[in-house]
Amino acid sequence: MRSNATRLALVGAATVTAVGVGRAVTRRRRRHQPQREDGWYVVRRAVTVDRPVAAVISFWTERERLDRALAEWATLEQIDGNRWRCVSRDPDTGATEWRAEITVTGPGRLRWQVTGGPEQQGTVELVPAPQGRGTEIRAELRYRSGPLRRALGLAAGDEPDLRLRDTLRRVKSLIECGQLIDTRRDPSGRSPAQERRTDEIRQRLTTGGRA
Amino acid sequence: MKALCWEGVGKLKVRDVPEPRVRAAGDIIVRVRASSVCGSDLHLINGFIPAMREGDILGHEFTGEVVEVGPGVRRLAVGDRVVVGSVVACGGCWYCRTEQYSLCDNSNPQPVFAEKLWGHSPAGIVGYSHAAGGYSGSHAEYVRVPFGDVGAFKVPDGVPDDAVVFASDAMPTGWMAADFCGLTGGEVVAVWGAGGVGQMAARAAQLLGAERVIMVDRLPERLAVAADRLGVETVNYADTDVLEALREMTAGRGPDACIDAVGMESHDVGPGYAYDKAKQTARLQTDRPTCVRQAIMAARKGGTVSIVGVYAGLVDKFPLGAAMNKALVLRMGQMHAQRYIPMLLDRLAAGEIDPGYLATHPLPLDQGARGYEIFEKKEDGCLRTVLHPA
Ligand SMILES: NC(=O)c1ccc[n+]([C@@H]2O[C@H](COP(=O)([O-])OP(=O)(O)OC[C@H]3O[C@@H](n4cnc5c(N)ncnc54)[C@H](O)[C@@H]3O)[C@@H](O)[C@H]2O)c1
Ligand SMILES: [Zn+2]
Ligand SMILES: [Zn+2]
Questions:
Q1: What's the CATH fold of domain B2-169+335-388?
Q2: Ligand 1 within 6 A of B192 CB?
């Protein structure tokens, strides 16, 4: 793997992952307790992308494509050779939600740490899948969640585990077919109020209502 | 624009709805010229497939003209006449790349329900509830087709709308049913259900080498049409013991392959039916499996049971012992439209398959609700109602 390419690639994958779950960590809903290790909650999820590791990497190294993929989620700046800063924005208001620092730790591996936000860190690893089935993107997320934060903003679908799965699914779709399917604003005979209720159901069918 | 919307169990209404727009680079917008009803819609309308919402536009078997293309579309242009597969497929995942389009990983944006019910989510389907992606259906003046290059196919000149429309769903489903049977020539194939899907399965089985095809249904008009159009033998289960008849017709062997083209609203005569219906109504079983039970009992030892009739959840009294001890092959699935459509269009143009006779009831879109009533009650020899928006 060319080191620079690898770096950018992993940064991209991690950013999407971090952004996707970051919001969830702040507003998570406590339904069941994930595994705990050394005082952290730990969630591990993986997805298989039907492209070789090199292709997964080159997807993320194309800056323009990456920016498009991240569009309404985050911006990414390089700090130095191995470190990147990711700023997550609220897609509705555009306000900064939190910042993360991403560090490349080895070939096919990186780590991120949220700074000035909910306590969160994680790793992403790219591993070739057996039988030539492409690449396994394996993500691990560790977070702490204080009692106060737990009590606030408990929107459905914000379980970090579910959000992580949803995010990995998005990454997979972007790489495999270049887009995320969205049927939300397709025509229907619904009134605005009925449409809002349907959107809640869509949300639950997208990220899951419970863990 | 006008569209036929679901308004609750058993209720349909034509409403004014906004027109669809191109939303992604691969999208196309199709002006619908013909949009057929399908047996699957009955499962949706009657509330047996979950996650339907008031205002959902029905319809997934359609043909029309491309009126707008997204910037990423390569194979199609405005003005092309196309037929579109019911199943939405991304073209880029492992399943699509191995032509198992109805198992596409990326075309159901709302996969949670399927994942919980079935372990994994198959592809999204146009006009087929929010559990299958929440796509707006084709019983409308216009419809958005995602991944246009993958799912829409140019129609050969001279093939009328009311024939090519079935290349969207009934033909590929029937073809896949016969394909599952692994025919090598000379087999006896039995098909349960003489609807559009069953009739197309019967024709496909003939083209793939079956020597005899036997169709099972209770509607004499449908059986008569099948006998007349396709030259199949028929068994009417209303007045005949199906297992006995099939055994006799095959000199004791049983059919080499049995196709279920009926699905979860299977009807039957006798007390077993009342039992299944009661259990389904009480949601103790979600599906009525009469016909698949029969297919398993009827199949010869080592034969194949091919299921394209749709099931959603749990069934009761499934004769697994018969299937196991007779070493049956069970194949099933939603159809891989995109795999079969190009070949089927060639066969259509060559006159090898002529599905036009299925369009017994062409009607304007405005009369969509009535069209479904005619179809559901099989009034007046109805095989399929085909709706025309303009
Ligand atoms: N797998 C797929 O991709 C796919 C695609 C399209 C349709 N389908 C399914 O195929 C099935 C048939 O569709 P269709 O459009 O032909 O429906 P249809 O309603 O026109 O036909 C069903 C036929 O089955 C007959 N029938 C009912 N109970 C029976 C029994 N016990 N034995 C024999 N026949 C019986 C009915 O009399 C009717 O003629 C449906 O379940 C539909 O959902 C599946
Ligand atoms: Zn159908
Ligand atoms: Zn796919």
A1: Quinone Oxidoreductase; Chain A, domain 1 (3.90.180)
A2: yes
